[in-house]
């Protein structure tokens, strides 16, 4: 039926009529999934007070989301090939709505965790599925613009999250966060039911239970290890066990995928050198971005005496800049390719990251907001264009695996980046010097982030440059 509709709309040669409502459905689904990831950051103190939790326990509401999300994403390539687009997307949205309702009504911490797990499992499916659909419905020369629209959501949602939750928890109970998300998801379910067509191809791969278990322990172990290392320290027993279990399971998982006729996750996508390069670049940039989004609010609230709402507000100009820039860089990419966008963008990221290495007690709100906004301008020039350039290299049947791999690596990079920068910040702090000593730790963590940015800048010179080159190799 979806094919017939496409053909009727396609007589003029462009299925535009179909794409616009489809994009709206997909983007609103992705928006709530990402918004939800950052929404709790500023609300944690209120949840801790209400449910009588300590900081380490409450942090699990954030960590478990990232963990389950990271476990689900690698499995989505298999799910996309197993189920129809409609069924998979609607199931994910309904699961997300159920999780949101459980969180809103949760009487205790255990139920709140159950709700977060449901939300995370659904979000882990929504993101790669959405990217796969975009790549299948847009021709290669328009994918940059489509991914730019997707990037707009990725940029706006995480920044609106802390600001919105900061404002809501100052005026209403913390449960209001979930009641704000719920109607958006329910509307999206109804609209998706009538609009969404089956786009992805079903190849009905066999269920390899061992692969799913190994994938969960592999990615889950590493994500858990990295996300708890920030609090517990790298040498603690639980971090060491998680890392070892994760590394062994992941190695076994990769070796098994190489032997299977229908692997759950196709690691052969890395045989394409440009895909591998752009994935590494995307990871490094994501580490720089997510680290900044974690470290700067800590600096503002714990060391400079700003409120949760103000620290959220400081991140907002950067998000607005990134949101506006993403569709523009998408169009530039469609015309010129990713190489020079990435080089210029990473130069900006490098300079602005080092501008965060000389902070002190007198650093102003305006300085932090301005430098962060320019930094996000640079990140917008890199993030979506390099992802699109990498995925453009893959044939259609490998795109679900490419998007799943890309999202998985970004999750791992986010966990690693956060853990690494928070660990560096706490270990480099000099408590005897008071606030000045703690800010020293922040400065050192941005020196580490700056080194990442320099590495990424060097790698960017190896991207294939012009559109013609990309087309020839595609």
From TrEMBL:
Q: How does it sit in the membrane?
A: Multi-pass membrane protein
Ranges annotated as spanning the membrane: 20-40, 60-80, 87-111, 117-138, 150-170, 176-196, 208-227, 233-255, 275-300, 306-328, 340-359, 365-391, 412-430, 442-463
Q: Which domain of life is it from?
A: Bacteria
UniProt entry tagged with the keyword Nucleotide-binding: no
Please report the stretch or stretches of sequence annotated as the Major facilitator superfamily (MFS) profile domain: 22-468
What InterPro entries is this protein classified in?
A: EmrB-like (IPR004638), MFS (IPR011701), MFS_dom (IPR020846), MFS_trans_sf (IPR036259)
- Subcellular location, record wording: Cell membrane
**Keywords, comma-separated and alphabetical:** Cell membrane, Membrane, Transmembrane, Transmembrane helix, Transport
* Protein known as: DHA2 family efflux MFS transporter permease subunit
- Mind giving the lineage of the organism this protein is from? Bacteria, Bacillati, Bacillota, Bacilli, Bacillales
């Amino acid at each position: 039926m979806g094919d017939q509709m496409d053909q009727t709309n396609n007589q003029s040669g462009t299925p535009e009529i179909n794409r616009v409502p489809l994009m709206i459905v997909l983007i609103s689904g992705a928006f709530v999934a990402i918004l939800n990831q950052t929404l709790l950051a500023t609300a944690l103190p209120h949840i801790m007070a209400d449910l009588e939790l300590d900081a380490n326990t409450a942090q699990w509401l954030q960590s478990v989301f990232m963990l389950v999300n990271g476990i689900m994403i690698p499995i989505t390539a298999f799910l996309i090939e197993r189920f129809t687009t409609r069924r998979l997307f609607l199931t994910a949205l309904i699961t997300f709505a159920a999780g949101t309702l459980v969180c809103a009504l949760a009487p205790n911490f255990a139920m709140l965790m159950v709700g977060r797990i449901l939300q995370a499992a659904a979000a882990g499916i929504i993101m790669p599925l959405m990217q796969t659909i975009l790549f299948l419905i847009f021709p290669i020369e328009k994918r940059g613009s489509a991914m730019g629209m997707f990037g707009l959501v990725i940029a706006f949602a995480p920044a609106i999250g802390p600001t919105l939750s900061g404002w809501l928890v100052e005026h209403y109970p913390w449960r209001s966060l979930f009641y704000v998300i719920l109607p958006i998801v329910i509307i999206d379910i109804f609209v998706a039911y009538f609009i969404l067509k089956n786009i992805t191809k079903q190849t009905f791969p066999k269920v390899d239970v061992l692969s799913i278990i190994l994938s969960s322990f592999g990615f889950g172990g590493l994500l858990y290890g990295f996300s708890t290392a920030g609090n517990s320290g790298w040498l603690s027993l639980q971090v060491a066990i998680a890392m070892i279990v994760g590394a062994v399971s992941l190695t076994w998982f990769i070796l098994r995928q190489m032997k299977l006729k229908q692997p759950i996750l196709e690691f052969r996508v890395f045989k394409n050198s440009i895909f591998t390069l752009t994935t590494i670049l995307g990871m490094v940039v994501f580490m720089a971005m997510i680290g900044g989004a974690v470290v700067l609010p800590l600096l503002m609230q714990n060391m400079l005496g700003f409120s949760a709402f103000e620290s959220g507000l400081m991140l907002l100009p950067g998000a607005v800049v990134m949101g506006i820039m993403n569709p523009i860089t998408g169009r530039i990419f469609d015309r010129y390719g990713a190489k020079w966008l990435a080089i210029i963008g990473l130069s900006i990221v490098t300079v602005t990251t080092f501008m965060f290495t000389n902070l002190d007690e007198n650093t102003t709100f305006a300085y932090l907001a301005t430098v962060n906004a320019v930094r996000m301008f640079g990140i917008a020039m890199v993030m979506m264009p390099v992802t699109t350039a990498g995925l453009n290299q893959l044939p259609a049947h490998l795109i679900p695996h490419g998007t799943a791999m890309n999202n998985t690596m970004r999750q791992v990079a986010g966990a690693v980046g956060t853990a690494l920068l928070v660990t560096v910040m706490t270990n480099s702090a000099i408590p005897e010097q008071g606030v000045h000593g703690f800010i020293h730790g922040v400065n050192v963590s941005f020196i580490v982030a700056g080194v990442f940015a320099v590495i990424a800048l060097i790698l960017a010179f190896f991207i294939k440059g012009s559109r013609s080159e990309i087309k020839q190799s595609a």
